[in-house]
Amino acid sequence: MARGARRGHVCARHLRPHRPRHPHRDGGEAVTPGRQTAAALAIVAFAALAGAASVADRLLPPQLAPTDPASAIVVDREGRLLRAFTTPEGRWRLPVRPETVDPTYLKMLIAYEDRRFYDHPGIDPAALVRAGGQMLAHGEIVSGASTLTMQTARLIEDRPERTLNRKLREMGRALQMEARLSKADILALYLSLAPFGGNVEGVRAASLAYFGREPDRLTLGQAALLVALPQSPETRRPDRFPEAARAARDRVLDRMARLKVIDAKAAAEAKAEPVPTARIPFPKLAPLAAEAAVAAHPDRPVIRLTVDRELQTSLEALVRARAPHLGPGLSMAVLVVENATGHILADVGSADYLADDRAGHVDMTLAERSPGSTLKPFIYGLAFESGLAHPETLVEDRPTAFGGYAPKNFDDTFQGTVTARQALQMSLNVPAVALLEAVGPARLSARLADVGVDLVLPKDATPNLAIGLGGVGIRLIDLAALYAGLANGGIVPPVGLDADAPKPDGPPAQVLDKVAAWYVADVLSGTPPPVNARAGRIAFKTGTSYGYRDAWAVGFDGRYTVAVWAGRPDGTAVPGLVARTAAAPVLFDAFARLSPDRVPLAPAPPDALIATTATLPPPLRGFGAAAETPRPDSSTGALRIAYPPDGARIDLDDGSGRRRPLAWAVEGATRPLTLYLDGAPLTIGAHQRKGALPVTEPGFVRLTVVDSAGAADSVTVFVE
């Protein structure tokens, strides 16, 4: 027999619901000798029971919680339900407190079940007198004397038998519970344990199962139905016996009207409400994240995630709608991270948790996949940080072999000489590999490992140039953390889902210095958006892995980072799967659902160099082959430094221990000029073409001049 059936009729006054209501059942009965005798017996029994309570309490302490624990539940950052799990015995039993339940329902429950709940010590003497008198008068039980505390004791101990011994035991347990627990605690136990049909226990589980909503705000009809169901949970189940459920609900409404708990008009209107005829599935938001959280914290009955339920709902719907358009068997994953805290606000691990054809049970936010070009920003960042390049540095995109490795672009074309900014925005491969060769693959791998991101290499392999183009494994959650670091001035936040996790100790994780991170963010903010998306709203990068197996898009603004992955969970190639058309549109739609207003990126740091290619210091104007350009010749009329000559060795000692200034002269310039000494600007006259500079220390000196037309020249000399 089902447990709900076993535990039906929790109130003894309904043990014989088929009998006509006795005219004297609700009080006002004539006092007869039989009733006087019953009253006296009840009082004596009550006194004897109370006298023995202290002895029994010491010998047989009460059980204050059921042996079968409550359902584990996972809630969002505001405490709203994301997912619940059945108990080990397969029941839906969700924890609940009276303050989280509709007050009208509580008034109706107490008025119907135990009007003196807040006044009696667990046993209601008046109810005992009434029940005993009715039993003597009619030769059978007409109404019971169970209080809510007694019913709660029975629910905890789960004793199905209906005997006088059980009733006396319930009375004793009720007295013990009242001595140990507050009325609110007792009511909370009842609200969590009362049977509502099948494997549904507790008012919260019942409200979700029958109405699809939390019990904090109920209609009168809903509240009345929830009061009626525990009296006979199996015969009144609305999903099986809706007419019986309706009749029981209406009886509760009529009684509440007679007791003036609600008015007659409200009761009549509540009777017109439909009765549910089927159970509603329990919420399964962030299902994969919830499963992982419960597995990681089996001792926590309630696990609070950093997820925002409304955003999670919206993005799950977005992914569920978009994935089928990518093709059969494809899945998709999306993460939203709050940059400042690292809190994950949405965690969509698959296209559809229940879709077996898309491997919905596989959490692709944690899968190790090839990142395509999404690591390129960190190659450029290290190059910027090391002084090898600047966003406006010229780089070459031409067929180039790096040992035996000859990368080419996605479209098999080459762009020639471009700036580093253009190369990253167009995701050109040769410049990225050239910069990685200069930076060092091992250095890139080590820098990412320093902030907690371990690249997955083939067995026994070491970092090589291929990692810059996706020849490595990484997780979506790690990419989200790295890009949040770009938005944070290089500081990678501790990305996670546990809202109650302690804050990490130690210094912040720094993937790039502040200036390099800003350069990268500024470059990515100019990446051309996908079709029908607005430019300049976010900084983002896409990546398509080798063989069209993975499509990525990761973007950020001043507040959020969103990371998107699309592909087949089994790693099968998907011809035509391109990040720009598969992942980038979802990235922009996700940002639109976050907020209509974008939080801008941080302004440039004070020490960032804002310049054009022509106004950069000469060492930064070109990288690699692009830096190997001849110096201007005076015969062409172009700007050039006439003195000192490049590479000269100049003695500034005047023979008396004092140092002469370093003379300089410029030809072919469009005035006014800007002069730099070792990268620091100097103040000179608007029409000055020559002069002298104080150089106090011996060593190498770099002199750079830029004219008003943007032309520049530079020399390096050694002064003694």
From TrEMBL:
Task: Specify the pathway.
Answer: Cell wall biogenesis; peptidoglycan biosynthesis
All copies of the Glycosyl transferase family domain together span 82-256
Naming one, the record's GO cellular component terms include: outer membrane-bounded periplasmic space
| Enzyme Commission number, as recorded | 2.4.99.28
Q: Which residues form the Penicillin-binding C-terminal domain?
A: 634-717
Q: Does the keyword Coiled coil apply?
A: no
GO terms classed as biological process: peptidoglycan biosynthetic process; proteolysis
Give one Pfam family. Answer: Transpeptidase
Record family assignment: In the C-terminal section; belongs to the transpeptidase family. In the N-terminal section; belongs to the glycosyltransferase 51 family.
Protein's UniProt name = peptidoglycan glycosyltransferase
Per the UniProt entry, what species is this protein from, by scientific name? Segnochrobactrum spirostomi
Q: Which gene encodes it?
A: pbpC
